[in-house]
């Protein structure tokens, strides 16, 4: 069932709750791929009712970014969500989420200024934190599901939930990859065949670093060089390629603690991100 207004979603959720049903929630910007579907599958397995939001949140795009060309296919998305057993697809207009006079913004200090925050501007994660908090307020889920592909987003959302004592559990699902390793992304549809080939170097670079770490290397600079070599060979100049503490996102000089190895790059005109978690124990 596609619902477009906050009051409709509130009423549907109120009825489900009155019947003692648990609510699983997957916030998305649509153009579903297997990554989104894996979140819905997990939500379906673990809850009585699954709510998915489809809202291309305009405020989290910088003026120079791809808001106007961001892939949109509501009809297909509605079919795919229904096939996964999603009860409610919430597709609000922008004015429903941001009525005239909307003036609130949530800022998570410390986690939002680095990596994608540095590349895209601090507004990006402020906007994500704000819209996710608003969606939590509308849906009031027991559990919300996010993909590890947006590792920094996951940390930001977890921190909002902790700091504001929001009554929702956050579950994180693994990155879903194409057979050649490319992380699934709605933006992959913009890659032409040459860019599509080049894009596989992102995961190969992370794999090379992971292999080095797995072999016992703990020096961040050497691990990063292994990844950088693969990117160089593929002619990719990353926006960033960094190793940071997996919880705080502080820079690290060694991988003796769990570290997030994150990369962002423009492949052709498409900006892609990917990451691997380097576990201290591996
Ligand atoms: O990951 C996304 O698709 C978006 O950032 C989210 C969480 C739906 C907020 O707009």
From TrEMBL:
Pathway: Cofactor biosynthesis; (R)-pantothenate biosynthesis; (R)-pantothenate from (R)-pantoate and beta-alanine: step 1/1
An example Gene Ontology biological process: pantothenate biosynthetic process
Catalyzed reactions per annotation: (R)-pantoate + beta-alanine + ATP = (R)-pantothenate + AMP + diphosphate + H(+)
Keyword Nucleotide-binding on entry: yes
UniProt key word Electron transport: no
Keywords assigned: ATP-binding, Ligase, Nucleotide-binding, Pantothenate biosynthesis
Domain of life: Eukaryota
InterPro entries for this protein: Cyt_trans-like, Pantoate_ligase, Pantoate_ligase_C, Rossmann-like_a/b/a_fold
One protein family per Pfam: Pantoate_ligase
EC numbers for this chain: 6.3.2.1
Signal sequence annotation: none
Gene3D superfamilies found in the cross-reference section: HUPs, Pantoate-beta-alanine ligase, C-terminal domain
Top enzyme category: ligase
Gene Ontology, cellular component aspect: cytosol
Molecular-function GO terms, alphabetical: ATP binding; pantoate-beta-alanine ligase activity
Similarity comment text for this entry: Belongs to the pantothenate synthetase family.
PANTHER family, alphabetized: CYTIDYLATE KINASE/PANTOATE-BETA-ALANINE LIGASE, PANTOATE--BETA-ALANINE LIGASE
Protein name stated in the entry: Pantoate--beta-alanine ligase
Species assigned in the record: Cyphomyrmex costatus
